[in-house]
Amino acid sequence: MIDREILAQVRRIQVRTNRMVTDVMSGGYTSVFRGSGIEFDEVREFVDGDDVRSVDWNVTARTGRPHVKKYMEERELTVLFVLDISASTGFGTVRREGREGRRTVRETAAEFCACLALAAARNNDKIGMITFTDEVELYIPAKKGSQHVLRLIREALAAEGKKEGTDLAAAIDYATRVQRKRAVVFVISDFLGDGYEKSLKLLGRRHDVVAVRLRDPHTRELPKAGLVHLRDAETGTSQWIDTRSARVRDAYATRLREHDERFVSMLRRARVDLLEIAPERSVVEPIMKFFRMRELRGAHG
Q1: pTM for this one?
Q2: Where in the chain are all domains bearing CATH 3.40.50.410?
């Protein structure tokens, strides 16, 4: 049975993101993401100006008159979310708007998925989802329809993983196996693991892949909060950290900066775009910025 509070959260996300979808659509969704290619439409007689390379020689030989194959762009897209639901996504320090409690990374991820899924549905595209921890937890094949979108939002928000760790390579490899038709694939995680570059490169050869990185502000910068007891949600290990120490905060910032540099360099090698989402801000602003970047890049070849 689905928890009543979960249903209420799904409804809140649907209402909130519905208002954003118009901005996302007008911001360039249909121009940024293309269909999977061209598909055959019909054979017709050759006319002046037709490309001789499009001649259908079988039909030409059969009829005795030159005919050409006509194609049209396949506009329909398939969008696939590969969503990290490991224990670390339950962390959150940002206050919820108008409600008690803190906004988790998982809730921000659900709102991002809802915004893109509703935009895709409005464009009559198919949407699917893979959720993962250190194993693939759930695969929902791509389909159309508003009820399907609501199910995806619910799973993004509330699906419980049987495991707590993160294995990005296993999830990406699974996506490569099950998604045969070219798709736009959003891999959504904090990307703090490693060992997945080869898998990401292979996925990027077959699909238009976007790495969506979500990190709580207190994981991006260690706050000056005195003596703090930290526990790793995925491994269970814990330790005390004196955040008053400038040396400790600087060491943390250095390690994070070095990790970020390696991460960005790896995405560049894999030819995968990066979209950063901050839980303390609206998800629409970075999506629109990303669209503008893609459009400008397309305009300049």
Answers
A1: 0.79
A2: 4-33+77-299
